[in-house]
Write a structure and sequence with these properties.
By secondary structure, the protein is of the alpha/beta class. The chain has two domains: 253 residues, Aldolase class I (TIM Barrel), CATH 3.20.20; 73 residues, Arc Repressor Mutant, subunit A (Orthogonal Bundle), CATH 1.10.10. The chain has a nine-stranded mixed sheet with strand order 9-10-8-7-6-5-4-1-11, sandwiched between helices. Helix 1 packs parallel to helix 2 and helix 1 crosses helix 10. The two termini are 28 Å apart.
Length: 386
């Protein structure tokens, strides 16, 4: 866990993709011309300088390059961004710097140069080791590409690697999922993120489901795949530290821990979300408008929208919902010191009800979800809002 809750993270959104996956709901645009990468890098450098002009000096514990496909950037462009951040923000000496990458067109030489540029944690979007599933998801890489990318990352010097996998894919059997997990474990990554496929209606796959061209798995099937994951990864020495995340001891994702411990973070780039001073806001999702604002600086930079302005109660309720996503849960004494709220009194009736139903546990001063409630966490967490 993060010891200094005053630490912050920086998220940099790289919105470009070779092609948009059929299930993806994140802001991204097809990369028609690599010149856009250089334009965007220059725009980010401008935003970094502008944001720093009114930054309050709290330490930056993590940097995360997400997307889209950050691995479309050249190592030189990555180095420029990290150097700019180091110049204008107070970065911790042992900062975690993660980059998401697709396992295609990233060889050992490219990854070595990214590592030299300052990336020290790599998150590979494997999603599946089954070529049929990859085609269904709209991924451009193959299972063979994934194997090669993992080997290349190791050879390039990366010792902190995450693999993303998706379960609940239409047609996926228990045997298919065990095969995916087993292949992932054989690669011996430090971290695994397992995401249930959940489709928004406007995505290509979502429309196919609505048109009865695809059939999602039943809830019970999805639950069984989740339970298999927990059991298999526990046997292999992975610590289940958040509902969807597993890590070797000490290799938990520090950037995501900042989110789950309700720390503040700064989002840079088109479509990036920030959370500062009880306000959650998003940069414009219009790439042209974003780059135009960069070009117009210093006449006035920010283009975007406020997503949420929290009062004091909303702020600590948000912290409850995030904290209960972790398997360790919430240290109730620390929470009271931080927010001035005694959860045992504030939620006395609800806690008694959830304890009686076996949905939560309170032990050694920590409030946390019962393992049997992980898969239905959204329904349980909603009770804390209601």
């Amino acid at each position: 866990m993060i010891n200094d809750l005053n630490s912050r993270g920086i998220y940099i959104h790289i919105p470009f993709c070779r092609a948009k996956c059929g299930y993806c709901d994140f802001y991204s645009v097809p990369l028609a011309d690599t010149d856009w990468l250089e334009k965007y890098t220059r725009g980010l450098a401008v935003e970094i300088e502008q944001r720093a002009s009114f930054y309050d000096g709290k330490p930056i514990r993590t940097i995360y390059l997400g997307g889209g496909t950050p691995s479309l950037l050249t190592p030189t462009q990555i180095e420029k961004l990290l150097t700019k951040l180091d110049q204008f923000f107070p970065l911790d000496s042992d900062i975690e710097v993660t980059m998401e990458a697709n396992p295609i067109n990233i060889g050992q030489h490219y990854l070595h140069d990214c590592h030299q540029a300052g990336i020290n944690r790599l998150s590979l979007g494997i999603q599946s080791f089954n070529d049929r599933e990859l085609r269904l998801l709209g991924r451009l890489h193959s299972a063979g590409d994934s194997e090669e990318a993992i080997l290349a990352a190791r050879a390039a010097g990366f010792s902190n690697i995450n693999l993303d996998l998706i379960y609940g894919i239409p047609g996926q059997t228990t045997e298919d999922w065990i095969f995916n997990l087993s292949r992932a474990v054989q690669a011996d990554p430090q971290h695994l993120s397992l995401y249930l496929l959940q489709l928004e209606p406007h995505t290509p796959m979502g429309r196919r489901v609505d048109q009865d061209q695809l059939t999602m798995l039943e809830d019970e099937q999805e639950y069984q795949l989740y339970q298999i994951s927990r059991e298999l990864l526990a046997e292999k020495g992975y610590h289940h530290y958040e509902i969807s995340n597993f890590a070797r001891p000490g290799r938990e994702c520090q950037h995501n821990l900042l989110y789950w411990q309700s720390c503040e973070y700064l989002g840079l780039g088109a479509g990036a979300v920030s959370f500062m001073n009880r306000v959650r806001y998003r940069n414009t999702v219009d790439l042209g408008r974003y780059l135009g604002a960069c070009a117009d600086y210093p006449g006035g930079f920010w283009q975007g929208e406020i997503l949420e302005e929290m009062d004091e109660r909303q702020r600590w309720v948000d912290a409850v919902l995030l904290g209960l996503r972790t398997t360790q849960g919430i240290n109730m004494a620390d929470f009271q010191r931080r927010f001035g709220v005694d959860l045992s009194q504030e939620y006395a009736e609800l806690l008694n009800e959830l304890l009686a139903g076996g949905f939560i546990n309170i032990k050694d001063g920590y409030l946390h979800l019962a393992p049997s409630a992980y898969f239905i966490s959204n329904q349980v967490l909603y009770r804390f809002i209601a």
